[in-house]
Amino acid sequence: MVTAKQEQEMEELIPARLSRDALARVALYVALIAAWVATCGSLYMSEVLGWIPCLWCWYQRIAMYPLAVILAAGLALRDRNLPTYALSLAVPGALASMYHILLQKVPAFVRFESCVIGVPCAADYLNLFGFITIPMLALTAFVIVIGACVIALGAREQVGQNYLSQGPVAVLSPTTSVGLIVAAVVALFALSGAMVRSRQPAPAIADVPAASSSVGASREAAAALYTQACAGCHGPAGAGMQLIRAEYLRQRSDLEVIALIRAGRSATDPENFSGAAMPANGGQVGISDEQLVALVRYLREMRGP
Does 260 map to a domain? Predict the structure, then answer.
C-alpha cells in the first residue's frame, strides 16, 4: 500500500527524471551537430581549400566519419545504446587528436612523427591565436560527443523509459529532426564551398625582386620552408612527385611559378599528373612574396642547370 508520503516523493521524482531525459536527449543532438560539422568541415578543408590531410588527420577522420553516421542512425532509430556505440569511436578519436596536437606543438614529439609520406603531421594549415589548429578543432568535436554520451548514459541508467522517443523539439519526430540537422549542416558547407570557388580571384603577386643578399628569406630559410610545406609530397630532395625534374619549372618564370604556388592546383586540373591536390600557398598561412621568391630560387638551385 502506497502512503501519502511515498506518493509525494514519486510526484517530486517524475519532473526530475523528465528533466534528465530532456538533458540527455538534447546532449545527443548537440553531439550530432558537432560530429556533422566536423565531418563537413574536414571535407571543406580538403576539397575546397585544397589542404591535403596528413596521416594523423586521416586517423581522426576514420573515427569521426562513421561517428557522424552512427549518431544520426541511432537517434533516428531511437537506440538507447547509442552512447555506448558513439564512445567506442569518440574516445580513440580524441586520443588521436591529442597526439596530433603534441606533434604540432611540442618539439620533443617531432622525433616520433610517423608521416614519412605525404603532408608532414607537424605542419599547420591553420593556427589561429597560436593554439587553434585543425586537430584542436577535431578534439573539441570529440570532447563534445564524449560529454554528451556521458550525460546520456547517466540518464539511461536512471530512467526506464526510452528518452530518445522524442526529438529535441516536441513537434518533430527524431527522424525528422535528424534529417533537418544533417541537411542544414551539409547545405551550409556546400553553399560556402560554392561561394569560395566562385570568388577565387587571380593571385596578386608583387614584382619579383632581383637576386641579392637583401632578399627577405635566406637559402636556409627557403630550405626550411621547403621541408615544411613541400617535402611531404615532393620528397626531401624533390625526388617525390614531379617537381625538380618537371618541365614547368624550366619553362616558367619566377613570377609564374609563384602564381601557381599562390593559387594551388586541384587534383582534377588537366596539368596535374600526380592525382593529388596542391594546396594554395603550400598550405602555409601568411607566407610572404619574399619567402616564395627565395623558395622558387631554392627549387631552381636544387634542379640545377
Answer: yes
> Domain for residue 191, yes or no?
yes
DSSP lists the bridge partners of residue 128 as 132
Please work out, in degrees rounded to the nearest 5, the angle formed at the alpha carbon of residue 35 by the alpha carbons of 74 and 153: 50
Banded pLDDT at 160 (limits 50, 70, 90)? low
Q: Tell me if 146 sits within 8 A of 91, measured CB to CB.
A: yes
Residue 298 lies in a domain: yes
Residue 156 has pLDDT above 50, yes or no: yes
pTM, two decimal places:
0.63
Same-domain pairing of 112 and 159:
yes
Residue 178 CB burial class (10 angstroms; 0-12, 13-18, ≥19) = buried
List the grid coordinates of 256.
609564374
Instruction: Output the DSSP codes for 100-164.
Output: HHHHHH-GGGGGG----SSS-TT--S--BTTTB-HHHHHHHHHHHHHHHHHHHHHHHHH-SS-TT
Q: Give the number of other CB atoms < 10 A from CB of residue 55.
A: 17
